[in-house]
């Protein structure tokens, strides 16, 4: 089995981002931004952006940073793919945890932020099928709809090409959970997956849009395609829209959804082409523009984004490729802000010190008090939690 790289952005000398402007279908031009207010010289892999030094807690917008559990007291050897949500009782996080990714002992653990401390991560569900068969769990996603119980989506299966979506719910803000339910099937994609990595969004009319993606194998090749699972009845039934890309020009997965004041929706996606890709919808997610490159790099790593209450957009991502000098790949993690989803300013560096497995698979939300909460995989051995004050950006 092999994977394609359709756009030859990368070279031995690094990524050749020579253009300052990319034309994005449906969303207009996507323009790079180099922190004009500070007149800093670009220092990143693209040659277009200035990346500031690693942020310090208590300075600027970074209010807090800690590991959810200490490195010398881990529930399992490895952890990955965190998610978080705000409930009536506070912030809740979940992640998959076990010996290592793909091991059958990997389950989903949940931790609560109570009185400023994270509770011990308890396993709430696993992939046991019967007395002799157990599959790993993958990519949990927490979501609190406008009405109804807290939802925890996750995947079960031997690998991302053969997994399927599952759902458990909680009536008490994540303290106890229902029995698992399989999400179902659809002719366009096969098993429903739910939100594949990043949180759904719920529109004013109650419509829930779960950003998702599939990894299909054909003739020994694997194609990555983005789709959406949309519910108008609080998750009782799901309509599949897409896939919206052919998996040829862009191998794209793991979209995150931004909402714009004019009613448009925008997704930002991980790709194998060295860039974050985007697509736009002006009909509540029923159709999407042709996928296009943004000006931001991507080392084939997960991202997440959120639209703030004030209309600005925050993106947490690895501002790098697999080329060039360290920190590269997943060894650097950044925050960028945008007024319009097109021009991005990478204003904060969360991590830039290389380690064994990097800093990856971030999740980001804004709580009712206006603060921004982020979790991400820390070297595959813990989950890091940070708090940002967006009024200081």
UniProtKB/TrEMBL annotation:
The keyword Mitochondrion does not apply. It holds the Pfam family BNR_2. Residues 91-374 form the Sialidase domain. CDD domains: Sialidase_non-viral. InterPro entries: Sialidase, Sialidase_sf. The keyword Signal applies. Keywords: Signal. Residues 1-21 form the signal peptide. PANTHER family: BNR/ASP-BOX REPEAT FAMILY PROTEIN, BNR_ASP-BOX REPEAT FAMILY PROTEIN. This is Sialidase family protein. It comes from Cyclobacterium jeungdonense.
């Amino acid at each position: 089995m092999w994977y394609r790289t359709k756009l030859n952005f990368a070279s031995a000398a690094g990524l050749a981002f020579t253009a300052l402007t990319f034309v994005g279908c449906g969303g207009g031009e996507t323009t790079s931004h180099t922190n004009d207010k500070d007149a800093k010289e670009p220092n990143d892999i693209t040659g277009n952006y200035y990346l500031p030094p690693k942020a310090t807690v208590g300075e600027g917008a970074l209010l807090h940073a800690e590991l959810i559990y200490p490195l010398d007291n881990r529930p399992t050897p490895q952890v990955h793919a965190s998610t978080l949500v705000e409930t009536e009782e506070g912030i809740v996080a979940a992640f998959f945890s076990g010996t290592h990714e793909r091991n059958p002992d990997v389950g989903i653990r949940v931790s609560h932020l109570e009185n400023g401390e994270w509770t011990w991560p308890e396993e709430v569900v696993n992939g046991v099928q019967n007395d002799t068969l157990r599959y790993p769990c993958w990519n949990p996603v927490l979501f609190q709809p406008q009405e109804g119980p807290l939802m925890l989506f996750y995947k079960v299966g031997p690998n991302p090409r053969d997994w399927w979506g599952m759902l458990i719910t909680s009536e008490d803000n994540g303290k106890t959970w229902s029995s698992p339910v399989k999400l179902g099937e659809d002719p366009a994609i096969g098993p429903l997956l739910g939100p594949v990595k990043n949180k759904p969004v719920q529109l004013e009319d109650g419509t829930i849009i779960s950003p998702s993606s599939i990894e299909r194998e054909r003739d020994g090749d694997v194609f990555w395609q983005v789709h959406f699972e949309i519910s108008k009845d609080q998750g009782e039934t799901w309509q599949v829209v897409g896939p919206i890309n052919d998996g040829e020009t862009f191998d794209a997965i793991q979209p995150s959804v931004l909402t714009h004041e004019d009613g448009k929706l925008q997704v930002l996606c991980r790709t194998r082409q060295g860039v974050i890709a985007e697509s736009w919808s002006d009909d509540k997610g029923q159709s999407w523009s042709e996928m296009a490159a943004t000006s931001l790099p991507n080392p084939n790593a997960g991202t997440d984004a959120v639209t703030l209450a004030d209309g600005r957009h925050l993106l947490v991502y690895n501002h790098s490729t697999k080329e060039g000098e360290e920190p590269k790949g997943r060894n650097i993690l950044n925050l960028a802000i945008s007024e319009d989803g097109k021009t991005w300013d990478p204003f904060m560096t969360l991590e830039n010190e290389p380690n064994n497995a990097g800093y990856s698979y971030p999740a980001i939300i804004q709580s009712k008090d206006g603060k921004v909460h982020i979790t991400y995989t820390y070297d595959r051995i813990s989950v890091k939690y940070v708090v940002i004050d967006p009024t200081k950006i």
